[in-house]
Each structure stands twice: as C-alpha cells, then as structure tokens.
Write a structure and sequence with these properties.
- The protein has 243 residues and is mainly alpha-helical.
- It folds into two domains: 73 residues, Zincin-like, CATH 3.30.2010; 155 residues, no CATH class.
- The chain has ten helices and three strands, in the order H-E-E-E-H-H-H-H-H-H-H-H-H.
- Strand 2 and strand 3 form a beta hairpin.
- The radius of gyration is 18 Å and the shape is globular.
- The N and C termini lie far apart (49 Å).
- The C terminus is likely disordered.
Length: 243
C-alpha cells in the first residue's frame, strides 16, 4: 500500500499533467480525531493537507488530495474566488455592524466556501476525468432535511442546507455527472417540498449562480457577485435576532 508521501507525489504529478502544476512544497499529515475528510492548513509558512484517519484508509483519499491541491492551485494562481481579503470585504459590506453569533458566522462562511469548492472542483474534475465513478453518490451527503423554522438558529441552518443542496446540484451540472438513479434530484425535491416558501423560492437563484460561475472573472466582478450572493443568503435569515 502506498504511503501518504507517495500518494502526495502521485497527486502532484496528476495535477501537473493536467496543466495545474503547484510550485510550492506541500506537507501532508493525518489527524486521528478529525470528524470530516480533510482540509488544508498552513504551518510555519508551509501549506499542509490534513486528512482524517478514516479518509486515509478509504478509497477516496486520492480524490481528497486532488481537491485540496486544487484549492492550493487557485490560491497560487491568484484566482479571485480564493482571495481572503476580497471575501472579508464582501462580508463587511453585507453584514455591516451587525453582530453575528458564532454559528451564524460559521454558516455564512460555509456558504462562501461552497463557491470556493466549486472552483476547486472544476480543477478536480479535469484532473480526475475517467478516474472516478461514484461522484454522484458522494454528493448525496450534501443533501439534508430541513429542521423547521421555530427559531433563528433553525432558519440559518436551513439556509445553509439550501446552499449545500444547490452546491451538489450545480456541481453535477457543471461537469455533466450523471445523477445515479435520480437520487440527487429526488433528495433536493424532498428538501424543497419540506422547506419554507422563502427557501424554495430562492433555491433557483443559488443553483443558477453556482452553475454559471465563470472561470475568467476579475476581482471587481467577483466582489460584486459575492456581495449579491451574500445579500440573497442573509435575506433567508434574521441576523438581527439573537437565538
């Protein structure tokens, strides 16, 4: 069985062969307690891909490495979608002086991460073309059931779930991935039918934005897109209310 370093080297080679060479040195390590698949961090000025114990022993590890390296490539190449300063400016413009609770901040930035993930996945699908067959089933984990609307936290949670559903839907459409047995479509239909009318009415906007994110986009254009996106997201929540 290949070591993590060997898998990293192979993933870097696949990225380079597909036209997405990464110039910087990348570390890789396992977090025994990490509850999700993995993420990219920075330690001592060096980017490090951290993978969970279960991802390390799964058949999805190479896909995870390519996805995380795709994020790193976007950062290296200066793509606006991965510009932290641009994201923070957009959030400041939309949120203003309103104080968000920690869970609200997390959900809001997760909605931005969905856009970053779409841009990373554009690279992932190019690099992994013909090398993966269970992508649609993987995206099923992005489809949830609404939790009701009895308080502000549930309203925020459902808004986040709606973005996750749109992310899965748009990703499959962007890359012409077959929806195995219509599971994604069915899951989204069930989510929307059980959601509030506001969520259901706003879903097509998010699906459309995510499906048609342009590869070539200036910082000014992306900033404008992100501000509009966040305005629409916050319209589904009540950020002035403390849950």
């Amino acid at each position: 069985m290949p070591t993590l370093e060997e898998l990293k080297t192979h993933a870097l080679r696949l990225m380079k062969e597909a036209g997405f060479a990464i110039s910087e040195d990348i570390g890789i390590e396992v977090d025994q307690k990490l509850p999700f698949m993995g993420y990219t961090s920075e330690k001592n000025g060096k980017r490090v891909i951290v993978v969970s114990k279960w991802a390390n022993s799964s058949g999805m590890l190479m896909g995870l490495l390519i996805h995380e390296m795709s994020h790193i490539y976007r950062i290296e190449s200066g793509h606006p979608s991965h510009n932290d300063a641009l994201q923070n400016k957009a959030v400041d413009m939309v949120v203003g002086h309103r104080k968000l609770l920690s869970y609200q901040q997390e959900i809001l930035f997760n909605s931005i991460n969905s856009i970053m993930d779409l841009y990373a996945d554009d690279i992932f699908f190019t690099v992994m073309k013909g090398k993966t067959t269970t992508v649609a089933d993987f995206f099923l984990s992005w489809i949830h059931r609404p939790v009701g609307t009895s308080n502000t936290k549930k309203q925020w949670t459902n808004a986040g779930y709606m973005v996750s559903a749109a992310f899965a839907d748009a990703n499959l459409e962007r890359h012409n991935v077959p929806d195995t047995d219509g599971k994604i479509k069915k899951g989204i239909q069930e989510f929307l039918s059980e959601s509030s009318p506001e969520i259901a009415a706003k879903y097509p906007y998010f699906k459309n934005v995510m499906t048609h994110l342009p590869e070539k986009i200036t910082e000014k254009e992306f900033g404008k897109l992100l501000v509009d996106y966040l305005h629409n997201f916050l319209s589904l929540t009540n950020p002035r209310t403390v849950a």
